[in-house]
Each structure stands twice: as structure tokens, then as C-alpha cells.
Amino acid sequence: MTPKERVQKFFKKEPIDTMPVFSGMGTVTIQAIEKMGVRFAEIHTDAELMGKSAMTSAEMWGFDGVVVPYDMCIPAEAMGRGATLYADVEGILYPTVPTKWATLDDVELPDDYQSLFGEARMPVVDGALKYCLDYDGGKYAVGGWTLGPFTLGGQIMELDVLLKGLAKDKKRVTAFLESMTEYVIAMAKHYQDLGVDYISIREMGSGTDLLSPRMWKTLIKPNLEKVFAALDVPTVNHICGGTDLIIEMMGDCGADAVSVDQKNNVVASREKLGPDALILGNFDPYKTLVTMDAADVDAVIKGCVDAGVDAVWPGCDIWPDVKAENMKAYVEAVHKYGDAPTSAVGRL
């Protein structure tokens, strides 16, 4: 069974040989970048370097799948908000959006989001996805991702402006989020047409640390439902932060799987979502792979499996400057504890 076949069967809930090692967030590591002889800043602007860094990381550590791109500001950049790329920086700095719209009055939305796929670094992402899809005869699973409508809106205008607008100008905020939903659907369909194996929708700024469950139900859920209903490829509903109070609504949005971070009580989530739900998560990637002693990693991964996840996923992007010994321990532990069937996926 190839890595791609393993991941494809996983999303179909068909029996597989072992738990796949993959994620819906970035898994590029500094060891792979150094092996390529390039700097971190260079992999965000060149399609081949972006794709090669993903595949080198996958081969180096034994991942079944890869995800590109690595930064969140590309859609906002394509809408004319620009990007600070930190091209001369030697360390790890992700591109950021330098200027966001300050008020709802400043917002200028295109009539057709399809026209944005040729703008800024959008073509770089397409090239990187094609590189990964073709790599080694298409052996590896390739994931696409976009931010969710609310989080994407926060990349284009200041989030506090958006939240304040809910009280003072709800009609225009609602219309803005509906337009962001159209943008997310257009991007996800575009990546689906390129042939990705799965798509993660990362509504990462909408956990209950920021929004009440009531606001999540009225502001977030309807737009996510539209996104997932529009896609045919396997989908993942990922949210960072507090999700215990909204996990049932997350599971009811229409995605094939839910992904949660380390704040989620997976045991309780499994009880709420039932045995057939695909649950992905939920270790702290920075603590586990960057700061922790390697000897302690095994217990973290075992804890995720014992809690009831169907695949062990990091709660967010892997911070690239990982300890090599921790990465090895992470992958070894997934294989060690992942040969037994999980709640939703059997074993051959």
C-alpha cells in the first residue's frame, strides 16, 4: 500500500495496514531545507523549492502526505494587500500581510474570485501542488488547504474591526463573510481540480477562546456548511483552541473529518461524535517536537491514540526548527501504536 493509497482509504474508512502519518497543516522542517541548501525565506516564492521542501521533509521523516503552501497570507496578497516576505532574513519568519483594510468602507471585493488565481503567489502554490502530485509517480498523498471564511477575513481586515462590526454593522459584516465564503469555495475547488487528495478548511480563529458557541453557530457554521457542501474531495474541518463546546457543531458541518488541537478533550469528543466519526489530532507540535525531551514523545503520541483519534495530527503547523530525535520518535510512535484499528478505521 502506497502512502497515497493509505490516506485515500483512510478517508473512505476502509481498512488500512497502519495509521498514516500526515497532516492538514505544514510539515516542512529545517533539516529538509538545509539539505536542499536554501534558506527558509526562499521556499515561499518558488514553486519547485516549495514542492521540493515538502517532499524532502516527507522522505526524511517518513510522512505519508504533504501540504503546501506554508503561510496564510497568499489569498490576501492576491487581493492586493501585499506580503512581507522577509527575503533577507536567515531565520524562520513566515510571510505576513503588511496592510489590512482598516474599515468596512475600505473593502474592495472582486466580482469574480477566479480572476485571482493568476495573481501574486497563487501560481506558485499551483506549481508546488503539481510538483508534489507528480513526485515519485504520485506516490504520496497531497493535501490542499485554505483558511475558513472568518479567519480569511481576519487576514484581509483587522479582526477587531470585524468583531466590532458585528455589533454596529452586522448586515455588512455578514455580507463580507458570505463573500469570503465564496472565495474559500473558489480556492478549494481550484485545488480540487488540480487533483489534491484532501482539503483542510482551517477556521483557526473561531475557537471558543474568541467566539461564544452561540456566535459560532450563527456566524461560522452556516458558511462552513456551504464550503463543505460545495466540495467532492475528502475534507477536514480544523479549528485551533477551545473546541469542546462546539465539537458537535463542528461534526455537523459536512466535512469528512474534524481536526482539533491539544485543548480538545478527545475522549469526550469521541463520545459526542460517535464511533464512525473521523477525528484527527491532537498533540502540541511546538512543545512535543521542539522543546520536549525525545524520550517523552512516545507517551504524547500514545495518549492521542488512547484518547480515540483515528490519525495522530499536530494541533497546528509543525514549527520547522524541530529536534531530529523528536521527529523520529513521533513517527516511530505513530507506527508503533497505529497498527491497531481505530474507532472509525479498521486494519487489514
* Rg for CA atoms: 19 Å
Assign an overall shape: globular
| Order of helical and strand elements | HHHEHHEHHHEHEHEHEHHEH
**How many strands?**
7
Low-pLDDT windows of residues: none
**What's the N-to-C terminus distance?**
11 Å
Task: Indicate the mean pLDDT.
Answer: 96
**Sequence of strands across the biggest β-sheet:** 1-2-3-4-5-6-7
Task: Return the structural class.
Answer: alpha/beta
- Helix count? 14
Assign a percent range to the helix content.
Answer: 40-55%
How much of the sequence lies in strands comes to 5-15%
Major pleated sheet: 7 strands, parallel
Helix and strand layout, with pairings?
Elements: H1 3-11, H2 30-36, H3 47-61, E1 65-67, H4 74-81, H5 122-134, E2 141-147, H6 149-156, H7 159-168, H8 170-194, E3 198-202, H9 213-229, E4 235-239, H10 247-251, E5 257-260, H11 266-273, E6 278-283, H12 285-291, H13 297-307, E7 311-314, H14 324-337
Parallel strand pairs: 1-2, 2-3, 3-4, 4-5, 5-6, 6-7
Helix pairs in contact: 2-3, 3-5, 6-8, 7-8, 8-9, 13-14
Please outline what is shown here.
With 348 residues, the protein is of the alpha/beta class.
Report what the structure shows.
The chain is an alpha/beta fold. It is 45% helix and 10% strand. It contains 14 helices and seven strands. A seven-stranded parallel sheet has the order 1-2-3-4-5-6-7. The radius of gyration is 19 Å and the shape is globular. The model has no long low-confidence stretch (mean pLDDT 96).
Identify the notable features of this structure and list them briefly.
alpha/beta, seven-stranded parallel sheet, 7 strands
